[in-house]
Amino acid sequence: MHQRIVILISGRGSNMQAIVQRCAAEGWPATVAAVIANRPDAAGLAFAREHGISAVALDHRAHASREAFDSALSAQIDRFDPHLVVLAGFMRILGADFVGHYAGRLLNIHPSLLPAFPGLHTHQRAIEAGCKAAGATVHFVTPELDHGPIVMQSVVPVLPGDDEDALADRILATEHVIYPLAVRWFVQGKLRLAGGIVYQLDGAAQLLIG
Ligand code: NHR
Ligand code: GAR
Questions:
Q1: Domain shared by 113 and 89, yes or no
Q2: Which of 18, 102, 128, 195 gives 106 a disulfide partner, CB atoms 3.0 to 4.6 angstroms apart?
Q3: What is the pLDDT of residue 1?
């Protein structure tokens, strides 16, 4: 069945671009129906428009409360009747009502090896902890921040002399591989969730070593 995807961004949108490009190049049974940003200046909105994708800016600062923003956001999302909602560098914490409305069809990518380093400033925290490995995690979103069932992870080395930007760039290159793959699996119906564990039905590796 053909699936509609809505992608939420806050800035650059390079993960969103990777998903749009793979979807077209690989002929997924899916369409990116809309890209929605909580920042009107998000660079990714221009990319979406140039590719004929509906681009919506919904400024969280124009809403009186988190709940009001969440409601406005889900109203915008539901205009596109999506099968899947993808957070791709989306920087606003979402409330339990919002998350519940999209239960089982809301994905995020987080730039750490969860359950290590949920929240912000993950690259700097991994360096300061002396980690020798870092990476990214695609997970289903649950109300508890960065704690949902894990779909796929990538691992990269932390190298001597790395600063935050160097490590972020190394991880980002792997995000552009694992996020499109995870979304493809979802739209192909290849993911099953049981007991809080995500299984890939073909037995494909859910780990990328970058
Ligand atoms: N919402 C829920 N309920 N659960 C998750 O797992 C979520 C989520 C919303 C976003 C992405 C996330 C990440 O991958 C994400 C996962 C924003 C913050 C944050 O602190 C933290 C984690 C994530 C996204 N945001 C600040 C806030 O007050 C604003 C920061 C800013 O604007 O720069 O919302 O890391
Ligand atoms: C990515 O590294 C993503 O993992 C991270 O922000 C970057 C967004 O880049 N997400 C978070 O930190 C979520 N809190 P992009 O806009 O180019 O996809």
A1: no
A2: 102
A3: 84
